[in-house]
Design goal:
This protein is of the alpha+beta class. The protein is built from 17 helices and eleven strands. The strands form two sheets. Strands 1, 2, 3, 4, 5, 6, 7, 8 and 9 form a nine-stranded mixed β-sheet that branches. Strands 10-11 form a two-stranded antiparallel ribbon. A hairpin with a 2-residue loop joins strand 2 and strand 3.
Length: about 525
């Protein structure tokens, strides 16, 4: 599907990821076997003097080994100064690492340990602790320092039959221990809210307060604050279900789509400013300011940060008049993020966002050629359909595997939701700065209330319609890989019309049917 020579970063990303996955499987034997197999292949190839093939295998083995080794280094539990290596711990002192999240009756936060007190003295340490505390307690922020007086325990899988493996889930986020606190089990040591992440959250909350001052409480405020800033605490489970069943849950999760809308708006403003003239290449650098400011408004959520980083790479290539292949940019951003945090590969948001963008890059142009609408309005609608189909084509197998449902009306839902989301986003950016003036505040309230009411009614209608979702609970990882293989083969057959690909598709179908028949 891809030309590796034109996309040199594709190989490193694939094999670096495989190294991380091998580590996450928790079995050093797999790594040893793979390395032994590679060494055997290198020895065999060197006898036949295939230098080019030898060079490729050596490079791939280095990428694979780096993924495994970096994951092992980044894994806190392997560190000699991890707090779990200390005996008879009395207290643990740490900093709040991420914004707290409310989970029903409890508030969840992640504490990064900095020191421990034992019977033999105080020691500096590392490691993360998952902290559960009463939701009625003081709301803590990133950077707050706490002293825990309660006992920490290993996170274990629950035996309630839900299928959720808590230990595996949190270990993939580099968290191995947890504690349940009562009000007397901790003290706030100091408030050191100077981190960039906390400053970002402060900006986000300032925007939310401004939106609330204009719109008041209600659906309009709840949806707007979620769509603009990613603050979803006020969205009820019922309303969340409208979005998930309609296949537009990404609207509520500020993501690459929102960042792309911001970038398109900035680009349009620049074209207007330089009307009739070529936009100078260096001026693209100025688009980085509003782009990253929006990332700050959203609290530097991972999805927006990823999208902003990808667009930043593209902008730099544009400024220096260098061609940057979109797949290469996608791979570069993924590689940088995995180098910083290898365990990000386990996050569903990371997986789905990169697969969606990759799907759009690969399939959009091919799908767009199926129809050639002459009408401008129909051309716009067809363009939106192509983007939605491209993204859904690559994300569906994984999302069904992760969540067990397939939204049947995803195309209709996206055609309804995306234009309304754009109206809410652009109205907020253009009118909120002037909302101290009553005219702009009233105009903003009018636009937002009509848009959010329309959006909610449309999605409610879709989600309550017959056959709005299909439940698929028995999909396994082998099925997912087979589906992606079929997508690849059908794509190649569609491009080349080669009989060999058609034979492979039919053979694959026979093997898959036989495999499932044998299992049953």
């Amino acid at each position: 599907m891809y030309s590796f020579s034109k996309r040199p970063l594709l190989r490193p990303v694939i094999f670096f990821s495989l190294g991380i996955v091998t580590f996450l499987e928790g079995n050093d034997l797999i790594f040893i076997i793979v390395i032994a197999a590679i060494l055997f292949m290198i020895t065999a190839i060197s006898l036949f003097n295939y230098k080019f093939l030898l060079k490729i295998i050596l490079c791939l083995s280095v990428y694979y080994s780096c993924g495994y080794v970096i994951s092992k280094i980044k894994c806190d539990i392997n560190s000699n100064d991890h707090f779990s290596k200390k005996n008879k711990i009395i207290r643990i002192k740490g900093k709040v690492k991420a914004p707290p999240e409310d989970k029903r009756k409890y508030r969840q936060l992640i504490l990064s340990a900095v020191s421990v007190s034992t019977r033999s003295g105080d020691y500096s340490c590392s490691g993360n602790v998952l902290v559960w505390m009463p939701i009625s307690d003081q709301l803590l922020q990133v950077g707050d320092e706490l002293v825990l007086k309660s006992k920490v325990n290993c996170i274990k899988n629950s035996n309630n039959g839900s299928g959720f493996e808590a230990a595996s889930y949190y270990q993939s986020q580099n968290i191995y221990y947890q504690t349940f606190l009562k009000s007397r089990d901790y003290i706030v040591y100091s408030n050191m809210n100077t981190s960039i992440l906390q400053k970002s959250k402060d900006i986000q909350m300032a925007f939310i307060r401004k939106i609330k001052r204009i719109l008041g409480e209600g659906d309009a405020f709840d949806l707007t604050s979620a769509i603009i800033t990613g603050y979803k605490n006020n969205i009820t489970n019922e309303k969340r279900s409208y979005f998930s069943k309609s296949g537009v849950v990404h609207v509520l999760c500020v993501s690459g789509m929102h960042t792309g809308m911001i970038f398109l708006m900035i680009r349009q403003i620049m074209l207007i400013l330089f009307y009739g003239r070529k936009v100078p290449e260096y001026t693209w650098l100025f688009t980085l300011i509003p782009l990253w400011f929006y990332a700050f408004i959203t609290g530097l959520t991972p999805s927006v940060t990823r999208a902003s980083f990808m667009l930043s790479l593209w902008i730099f290539s544009k400024c220096f008049n260098k061609y940057a292949d979109p797949i290469n940019i996608l791979c570069a951003s993924a590689l940088v993020l995995m180098l910083i945090n290898p365990f990000i590969i386990t996050h569903a948001g990371f997986q789905l966002s990169y697969i969606a963008v990759g799907g759009i890059m690969v399939f959009h142009s091919e799908i767009a050629t199926i129809l050639q609408p002459l009408n401008k309005i129909m051309k716009t609608i067809w363009g939106a359909c192509c983007i939605s189909i491209s993204a859904q084509l690559t994300t569906t197998p994984l999302s069904v595997y992760l969540f067990g449902i397939f939204p049947v009306y995803f195309l209709i839902g996206n055609l309804m939701a995306i234009p309304i989301t754009a109206i809410i986003l652009y109205a907020s950016i253009l009118l909120l700065p002037f909302s101290d003036l009553s005219f702009f505040a009233e105009a903003y309230r009018f636009i937002i209330e009509i848009s959010t009411t329309t959006l909610l009614n449309c999605l409610q209608f879709l989600s309550n319609s017959s056959f709005s979702t299909l439940e698929i609970k028995d999909l396994n990882i082998i099925d997912v890989l087979l589906i992606y293989k079929f997508i690849y083969l059908i794509y190649k057959w569609g491009k080349t019309k080669s009989t060999s690909y058609l034979i492979l598709i039919l053979a694959g179908l026979i093997i898959t049917i036989n495999y499932h028949f044998t299992l049953s």
